[in-house]
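User: Before I run my own analysis I want an independent prediction to cross-check against. Here's the chain; please return only the structure tokens and, at the end, one sentence I can use as a sanity check.
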Amino acid sequence: MTHIYAVQMDVPAELEAEFNRIYDEDHVPTILKVPGVRSCRRYKLEHSTRPGMPRYLAVYEVDSADIINGPAWIEASDAGEWKPKIRPHTTNRMHSIFRQIA
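Assistant: Structure tokens:
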């Protein structure tokens, strides 16, 4: 069964270029090597009816909800420049798992 893992966050404006570079060139390629991770797409918010909605969204397609808590995911998410250079500066983080129903 396929699941979607949605990760939303904000980052200070002065870090946006570095955030996007590291996310696209380092973080996502590393996460995609985790067994059971099928894909990742990233989005930037254009409009929301909810005030304070995080501006950035990453949508990961995964084989099960357990993958994101497994050792391979945790190791991959801590690898590279993401953990020391970007993660400490992210705010308004939201994490959600959706199970495919149709």
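Sanity check: Residues 21 and 34 are 20 Å apart (CA to CA).
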